[in-house]
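<backbone_tokenisation>
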Amino acid sequence: MTDDSAKLVAVGEAIDSLCTIEITGRGVVGALAGAARAAQTGPMCLRAAQELARRVQPGDTVVIATGLPTYPWFFGEQDGPIGAATLARALVLGLAARPVIVTEAIHVDMCRAAVRGAGLYARGLEDALRLPTTVGVVEFPTDPERAEREAAHLLERLRPKALIAIERPGANEHGHYHAAKGYRLTEHCAKVDGLFARGKAAGVYTVGIGDGGNELGCAVIKDAVMATVPYGAKCQCPCGGSVVPAFVPDQLIIAAISNWGAYGIEAALGLVLERELVHDRDLDRRVHELCAAAEANNNGPGLLDPGTDAVPTEVHGDFVRLLGFMIQSGIDFGRLYKEPRYPWLRRVETPSGRSPAPREDTPR
């Protein structure tokens, strides 16, 4: 491993560490993240960012699936749509990609609101494919047969280079979808599993981001979910199965909050491209506020207050500020052997080849 790649991995490890801080008090993130790291190679967010940078060329499509109906309203939360919107922004700014968000019909408005909060246009599919700084937000069917037809159509029409699921439920071993607490969501969920399965079989890169074990992609750590998460091994619905979706992605990212996993990819992508791509705290607040105004709830209290998983927007703003500072420092220190980070501390050579000794009046 070269010095440069070792530094990249070191910052990648720091991104994962920050994204997996147990902030919500659920007590499962450490075990799930540890299992994800043991089952995969290298830092989670960095690996995803490197693959995206390698595969996605200007004008290529990246499909992001999000939206998790929350019990008892069976309407969406801010975790997922917000990460989808801010990651779409990073993909546009960093890779000139054409992001397309797929979700349930009931979640289209909240996803479009989040996208606008992230500074991008939210339009239909055709506009998204031809206009810059534009994200397509489209309905995906809840009916299984229609979903299979739509999956085939989208893959043929879009030819995506990546499929990313953020806080997105998936079907378990019995074909049912669940909340983390084991409630059945099957009738309310878009059946995106077929889209991901077809895509992966065709060589499309697939990523799952989750925080509780019931999200698409957590099959990578099924044993850990069943051993750690309450109702992970046996749901509270008549199917009696696990809450773990059966689909296995190319990369699983576990975070304390799923949006934070998306933020982690933003950060890592900026590190790879040597550009600061993490959005700032003001934009993060705007995305939360617009998403909440479109009736996405703050899961936990179940209120339409801006925030995610009972964590207020101020804390999310602090998180992105820390993440952005970390990445900027990583980019700067990565150039240390080429030029000093602080030019006024550049080594000055004397004829003897040594730096001059400090004068007597120079503070030591």
Residues 27-345 form a domain with the inorganic pyrophosphatase (n-terminal core) fold (CATH 3.90.1640.20).
